[in-house]
Every structure is written in C-alpha cells, then in structure tokens.
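Students often ask why we bother encoding 3D structure as a string. The short answer is that it lets us treat folding as translation between two languages. Here is a chain of 57 residues written in the first language.
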Amino acid sequence: MSQEALALAANVGRSNISMIETGRMTPNFVGVVRIAAALNCSLPGLMQEFEHHYAEG
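And here it is in the second language, the structure alphabet:
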C-alpha cells in the first residue's frame, strides 16, 4: 500500500505517514488505531510487526 493510499484510508496526512515510517514522528494512540484499521490489521498484529521490523535494532 502506498503512503498516499494509507494516509487517505487512515485519515492521516501523507507527510505524517512518511515521518512515522522514517521514525521522525511518533503517532498518538488514535493515529495508531486509524493506521491499523486502514491496514485491516489488529492492534496486537500491528505491534508485532513493529517489534519484528524495528525493535530488533
């Protein structure tokens, strides 16, 4: 999914999606919920993906 499509689906600015993706911004809880819903993903599933890709270092 493109950043633009995700931003539209989550009702979040595209530049915010870009900054979240690059680690320059941390979304608030509402933003995380919106992004998870736009990705058709549960919150635990989204957090598991985060841990898998970013928390390992």
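Translate back mentally: The two ends are 24 Å apart (CA to CA). Keep this in mind for the problem set.
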